[in-house]
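Researcher: We plan to redesign the surface later, but first we want a full-length starting point. Tokens attached.
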């Protein structure tokens, strides 16, 4: 089934660029999924998706068989996702440091983590401006190295689309990248 035009327009370019690297063997976690824009995009690519947020009304309205919405408080003291392993994890525009180090534990061997959120310096452009929600310089890169993740791509940059912001982006693999790397990634 072809990817819908709407799903392509809504999904982050970073997620679009690396989503195909996620193994098809398991379920993908769309963490703090919000409206479900990445859940829809991933479902259109043929993935089974667990869409988690504390408000799942919007993602439930998608009514996609490949997307399972789950209402969870991701900021409680105890990390709520300990019993499941994922072939991929997608996180955009979300940061909760107390549970950040839990992500590699729920990623299957050879699974792919795609992370993109706001970084230090974003206050100059608006919200979020609270340092608790902004990554420090090199924080995602340090996180990947601390957990032995193989970094496929990393950026700590200013972007002007969809709005002016400072962002950090990471695509990393737990283990080794299997199969071929699409042409756009080859050196």
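Model: Full-length starting sequence:
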């Amino acid at each position: 089934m072809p990817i819908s035009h709407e799903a392509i327009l809504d999904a982050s370019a970073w997620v679009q660029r690396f989503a195909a690297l996620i193994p098809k063997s398991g379920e993908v976690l769309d963490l703090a999924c919000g409206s479900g824009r990445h859940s829809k995009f991933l479902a259109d690519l043929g993935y089974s998706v667990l869409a988690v947020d504390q408000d799942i009304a919007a993602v439930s309205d998608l009514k996609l068989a490949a997307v399972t919405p789950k209402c969870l408080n991701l900021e409680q003291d105890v990390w709520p996702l300990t019993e499941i392993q994922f072939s991929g994890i997608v996180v955009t525009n979300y940061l909760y440091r107390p549970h950040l180090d839990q992500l590699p534990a729920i990623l299957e061997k050879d699974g792919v983590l795609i992370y993109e959120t706001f970084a230090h310096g974003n206050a100059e452009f608006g919200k979020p401006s609270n340092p608790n929600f902004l990554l420090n310089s090199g924080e995602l890169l340090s996180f990947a190295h601390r957990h032995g993740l193989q970094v496929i791509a990393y950026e700590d940059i200013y972007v002007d689309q969809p709005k002016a912001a400072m962002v950090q982006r990471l695509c990393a693999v737990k283990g080794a990248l299997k199969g071929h790397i699409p042409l756009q990634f080859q050196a």
